[in-house]
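Key result, reporting period 2: structure in, sequence out.
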């Protein structure tokens, strides 16, 4: 390499590094430590379904109640006016794919991160900060996928659904991270911050193939028994350190007021209406009369899409959501 080539390369690397720092800069109202300790995510190397643009989900679906298109819905439907559906069916509204999902439309595949971990042209992540006062802050890192592949049980594919929200939550005390939550199916796992693997200050998150449950380790994770993951069993998720994704490079930031249940966007032009939407982010579970649907011991091949961030207990008391399961904040790293 000639001296001139070296200087050009070094200058380019410096500019690129500076750009990355600027992309991760906290907007007004968001503590810098929320970014300093933000999770760094690894997607499974063989997953077909990558993180997806939240707005694209609205563009490629239509609101339905009981498999009928909602009359009088905003047209076009956008992230700014999505909450208007609350008066037209509310929790019974399903954002339903406009085309048969078994034809594998391209929008279900999401967007793959580049070599730096950035997803360009899409916003698949939101950071929501709840400042509870007295130095107590919960930071939620919400990740979105257009499609969930449920995996296989005894050779049967079960539990697929359109739309998939998963999240980490880090609990801070006076700017110091104390614990982190990893969402997994109907429950999840909590760990002390000091326990989990990290890249610098940032805790590592491994996303299971297809189902997108979040784990603190790579390998196999059986979740047959709630609150107990084992390296073998009937309902096994698979994680590896495959594709690096830095969610901070393509995210929107919000603060949340627990007393009033209100969201505030921390940058201009960022939509907030969608956060109040009470319905589901995917198709309603197909009836057994639908040729796409099959059940295995009562478990459907295609289940209903998920609710959005508003429904993830953003003002929770414990690190874990209150779901009837014992909240264990683990101090050893387990599957």
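The corresponding designed sequence is given below.
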């Amino acid at each position: 390499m000639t001296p001139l080539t070296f200087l050009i390369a070094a200058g380019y690397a410096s500019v690129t590094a500076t750009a990355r720092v600027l992309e991760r800069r906290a907007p007004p109202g968001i503590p810098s430590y929320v970014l300093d300790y933000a999770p760094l995510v690894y997607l499974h190397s063989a997953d077909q379904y990558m993180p997806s643009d939240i707005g694209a989900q609205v563009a490629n679906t239509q609101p339905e109640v009981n498999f009928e298109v909602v009359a009088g819905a905003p047209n076009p439907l956008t992230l700014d006016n999505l909450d208007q559906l609350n008066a037209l069916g509310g929790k019974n509204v399903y954002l339903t794919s406009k085309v048969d999902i078994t034809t594998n439309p391209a929008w279900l595949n999401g967007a793959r991160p580049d070599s730096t971990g950035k997803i360009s042209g899409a916003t698949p992540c939101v950071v929501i900060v709840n400042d509870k006062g007295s130095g107590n802050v919960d930071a939620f890192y919400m990740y979105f996928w257009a499609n969930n592949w449920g995996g296989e049980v005894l050779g049967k594919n079960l539990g697929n659904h359109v739309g998939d929200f998963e999240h980490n939550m880090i609990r801070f005390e006076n700017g110091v991270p104390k614990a982190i939550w990893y969402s997994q199916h109907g429950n999840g796992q909590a760990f002390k911050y000091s326990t989990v693997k990290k890249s610098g200050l940032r805790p590592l998150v491994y996303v299971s193939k297809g189902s997108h449950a979040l784990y603190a380790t790579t390998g196999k994770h059986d979740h047959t028994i709630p609150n107990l993951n084992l390296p073998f069993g009937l309902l096994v998720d698979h994680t590896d350190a495959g594709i690096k994704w830095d969610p901070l490079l393509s995210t929107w930031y919000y603060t949340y007021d627990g007393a009033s249940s209100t969201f505030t966007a921390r940058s201009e032009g960022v939509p907030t209406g969608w956060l109040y939407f009470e319905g589901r982010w995917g198709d309603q579970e197909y009836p057994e009369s639908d040729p796409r649907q099959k059940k295995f011991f009562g478990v459907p091949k295609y289940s209903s899409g998920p609710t959005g961030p508003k429904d993830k207990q953003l003002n929770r008391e414990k690190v874990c959501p209150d779901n009837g399961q014992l909240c264990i904040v683990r101090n050893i790293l387990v599957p």
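The first helix runs from residue 3 to 23. Residues 12-19 have pLDDT under 50 and may be disordered. This case is discussed further under Risks and Mitigation.
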